[in-house]
Design a protein that fits this description.
It is a single chain. This protein is of the alpha/beta class and 321 residues long. The protein contains eleven helices and nine strands. The strands form two sheets. It has a five-stranded parallel beta sheet, with helices on both faces. Helix 3 links the parallel strand 1 and strand 2. Helix 2 crosses helix 6 and helix 6 crosses helix 11. The longest helix has 19 residues. It is globular, with a radius of gyration of 19 Å. It binds phosphoric acid mono(formamide)ester (CP). Phosphoric acid mono(formamide)ester binds next to helix 3.
Length: 321
Amino acid sequence: MAEDLAARRMSLHGRDLVSIRDLSREEIVSVLDSARKMVPAAEGARPATDLQGKIVAMAFFEPSTRTRLSFESAVHRLGGSCLTIADAGATSIRKGESLYDTIRMLSSYADAIVLRHPHEGAARLAARASDRPVINAGDGSGQHPTQTLLDLATIRERFGTLAGLRVVLLGDLKYGRTVHSLAYALAEFGSEIILSSPDTLRLPEEHREELKHQGAKLREEPDLYKAVREADVLYVTRIQKERFPDESEYRAVVGSYRIDGSTLRGAKPQLIVMHPLPRAGEIAPEVDATPHAAYFRQAFLAVPVRMALLNAVLGSARKGG
Ligand code: CP
C-alpha cells in the first residue's frame, strides 16, 4: 500500500512539466534511466509502439530547430502522431485569439501539448488552460526543463554521475533559460556551479538567492581562462539577441567570449564542452574535432530523453488520471 502510494507520487503520468523544479531528484533519475534504454529506438534500430494512438500537439510560437524536431522525432519513434504549429502567424492568434483559448481548444485535439512561447510564464498559463499535460519547451527567459533533462543525460553519460562535478555556466546567464533550469538541477545533484559571464549578463539576483537558499555551491569566475582550467563541464550559451530591449546593449557584449583551441589549452583532459545550440560564434568549429566537444551528442540525446518523458507523461487520458 505504502509502496503503491510512493509509486503514484513518483509517477509523471498526466502531469505538466513547466519548471525543472516540478521534478524531484528521483523523478529526474527515473527519466534519465528510461532514456538510456530508449537509445536504440531513438536511433531507429528497434521499433517501438508505446505512443500508438496518441497525438501530441507541438505549439511553437517562437523559432526552434532542435526542440520541436526532436520532440516530433520522439513521438514518431514511439508510433504516435503530431499536430504542429510551427508559425504563430499561420494561426488564429493573428485574428486576436488568446493563448488561453488556443491551448484550451488544442487540449481537445491532442493527448499532450508541447509549448514554446516568447513570454515567461506562458507555459504556466497554458497548463491552467489545458486538461491535458503541458510540457514547457521554453518560455521566454524563464525555463527550458526538457533541455535540462537532456543536458543531465549528456553529463551523466560522460561522467557516470551528476554529483561532485565542477560545471562552468558561460555566457548569457541573464536571458538564457537553459541555464536558469540547469543551475537548479545541478544544485539538486550536488555539483559546483561556476558562473562566468559579461557583467551585464550576470545571473539575475532572484536566481542567485533561490540557488543559495537551495544550498547550491555557487561562485563567480569572470576570467574565462581560469574558469576553463577548473571545469569538468563547460556549458556555453549564445547571447540571446532577441531578448534585449535595446540593441545597443547587445552590440556592447556580442563577441565578448569565444571558445577555441587556445581557450581550451589548459583544460582538464576529461573536460566536456556543451552548448544547447544554436551557436552563433561562441564555439569555434575547430573545437568540433576535439574530444571535448559534446554538443552534437547532447543534441542527439534530446530524442531518447524526450521519448522517455513522453512515455512517462502519456498513458492516461486526462491530466492527473
Ligand atoms: N536547444 C534549443 O532549444 O534549440 P532550438 O531553439 O533549436 O529548439
